[in-house]
Amino acid sequence: xxxxxxxxxxxxxVAVTGAEPRVLTVSGGADDGAPALPFGPLDxxxxxxxxxxxxxxxxxxxxxxxxxxxxLYTFGDRDRGGAADERARVIAVAYLALVRERHLAAGHPAxxxxxxxxxxxxxxxxxxxxxxxxxxxxxxxxxxAAAPAGAARRERRGRADITFxxxxxxxxxxxxxDRYELLYEAGLVAEARRGGGPGDGGAASDPxxxxxxxxxxxxxxxxxxxxxxxxKLKYRPLVFELLPEAFTLLQLQRTVxxxxxxxxxxxNFRRLVERGALVEGTGRVEPATGGRPAKLFRxxxxxxxxxxxPGVGLPGLPVADS
Length: 322
Description:
- By secondary structure, the protein is an alpha+beta fold.
- It is built from nine helices and eight strands.
- Strands 1, 2, 3, 4, 5 and 6 form a six-stranded mixed β-sheet that branches. A two-stranded antiparallel ribbon has the order 7-8.
- Strand 1 (4-17) and strand 2 (20-26) form a beta hairpin.
- Helix 4 (151-164) packs antiparallel against helix 5 (176-185).
């Protein structure tokens, strides 16, 4: 019997609050109680476009009206729903929205949650996370050793080195989805155990502690969104959509670090911002800095018409700075 095909609309809504990336989730997304990204099916009769359908679902589930959204990716894997109805094939169209966090209206099953709660190995602002060093790398070594000797084992070792920056390969901040997919294949995330996935009999007997799960394949969608955001920092001024109208250069740097998951060299970052003419002074200062009043700046929107790729970028090697 042919499978029924439906289109699902999914929203990854990201904010940065208190130097932490946050994502808007809703409850009731899965039988195991895992939170979900706001989502719902496309209603061809009610929704004139995919984006209007997405906005309607987000408004109904969170009470929030989105400003700018952009299409992120389309997911069409046959078993993307885990133990979902085998007769149904769901094509997931994912969107990305950047907002400033606001208090959520009462009566909606929505909450802001830390992005790195779901992808903890991606936060390297304090150096390599203990989770990655003490649990993920040893578990991946066991997964590699479990492969037949020869080409299969070498292929696993190469993938682990490239995606997690071990061996001679450096850490690539944009490979967020690759890292999640590898952990899924190795059975190191809870989602791999749903519906007899590839995690059964995998490297870890218990995937608990390898980040909190999301409903369905929503953690995969979140990983895709974070990787896309990190890549776009280089050529689009999207970081300013997450900042207030007036901000200090330290606020700007911390917001970029928050998304990138690394610390940046303070002076190199400021030279890059100034050279790119991305900001301009407001003539005001922020007194509540705990020291010398800091100058306030605003995004210079004219830069978008002056050159095709006005991104902030990630200057030099990440370092811990004061």
